[in-house]
Amino acid sequence: MSRLQAEHLYKVFGRRPDEAVTRLEGGTDRDELRADGTTAAVIDASFTVEPGQIFVVMGLSGSGKSTLLRMLNGLLEPTAGRVLFDGEDLTGLSPRDLRTVRSSKISMVFQHFALFPHRSVLENAGYGLEVQGVPRAERDERAAQALEMVGLGGWENSWPDELSGGMQQRVGLARALATDADLLLMDESFSALDPLIRRDMQDQLLELQKRLKKTIVFITHDLNEAMRLGDSIAVMRDGRIVQLGTAEDILVTPANDYVASFTQDVDRSRVLTAGAIMADPETAYGTRTDSGKEIRNAKDVLAAAPATVPAATPIIELFTPCSTSGTAVAVTDDEGELIGVVPRARLLAVLGEPMTPAAPPAVPAQPAPAAERSAAPAGKAVASA
């Protein structure tokens, strides 16, 4: 079962919102509604998030991503559509039941830290547990453990204004982790940080995710951040999800010119993997090694390859072997079986312009959760919003 599912979500602000949804379903443009004093913030958004997955929603300011996030935990009520959490319809819960779900199963990490200046670091980290009614001794213990996880052990008795911006954000993350919530919602949580600190926080999140296997919805406007963090990425524009897929899907086959404009400056060598660009092994049959020996089968490919790599290997690691040999790099599965090859020409070709489909592709199947996939090296796909 999916951990989180959004079904045809709409959020309309202004007069006669239900009528506006009907008009949108009939093809009315968002700008036409705005001319009538109605704003369609989110339009027909549907997706699923699997357990242990980092799902990134990216888009420019005003694209609707933060509004979408607030519908996921009931801070905003959808004008139409449903949000299912572990199969339960959150949009049908009473206010009291919804507060119970938010306090125990869903945690949120905000952009601007949202720490209480009059509370110590330990007290801030334990605030969610205090709301739940957890006894003082237990919440202090759990808050201290969460602070240790985010690298703030020893800072428990400090005050928020004694910490750097990055450290304050770690307190916010520790507060979310302390409740042991099943779902973390992160609303541009690293965007207020300096670039180096932001990178450190991304590293911290990925490291924690390897251990904790949380389900995370992460909002960002930074494509590189989205591609670095996201197992699956939704790109939003004008309230709609215009493309949904992996970082590789979005980079190699952007759905339209808008998405392509986002990806044009991305370092493809650190996002794309050998598995994403590999050709069928048979394409190497009939070629010859540098010494002139003909390659006739999979065994020959493996023997002649200048390197043998798993599918998750970033293509930046293929440059050296491809530059030293005219023979294709071999790509293998977890059992060491040959599943593809990366010839030098193919490696160079994918560094060019993205492939633009003749028509927008269908929304691809979402990838397996991170917990079920073999861990990629530091160059794991990342995105931004």
TrEMBL record:
This is Glycine betaine ABC transport ATP-binding protein. PANTHER family: GLYCINE BETAINE/PROLINE BETAINE TRANSPORT SYSTEM ATP-BINDING PROTEIN PROV (PTHR43869), GLYCINE BETAINE_PROLINE BETAINE TRANSPORT SYSTEM ATP-BINDING PROTEIN PROV (PTHR43869:SF1). Keywords: ATP-binding, CBS domain, Nucleotide-binding, Transport. Belongs to the ABC transporter superfamily. GO terms for biological process: glycine betaine transport; response to osmotic stress. GO terms for cellular component: membrane. The lineage of its organism: Bacteria, Bacillati, Actinomycetota, Actinomycetes, Kitasatosporales. One of its GO terms (molecular function) is ATP hydrolysis activity. Residues 368-385 have a biased composition (Low complexity). It comes from the Bacteria. Residues 4-263 form the ABC transporter domain. InterPro entries: AAA+_ATPase (IPR003593), ABC_osmolyte_uptake_ATP-bind (IPR051921), ABC_transporter-like_ATP-bd (IPR003439), ABC_transporter-like_CS (IPR017871), Gly-betaine_transp_ATP-bd (IPR005892), P-loop_NTPase (IPR027417). Residues 359-385 are annotated as: Disordered.
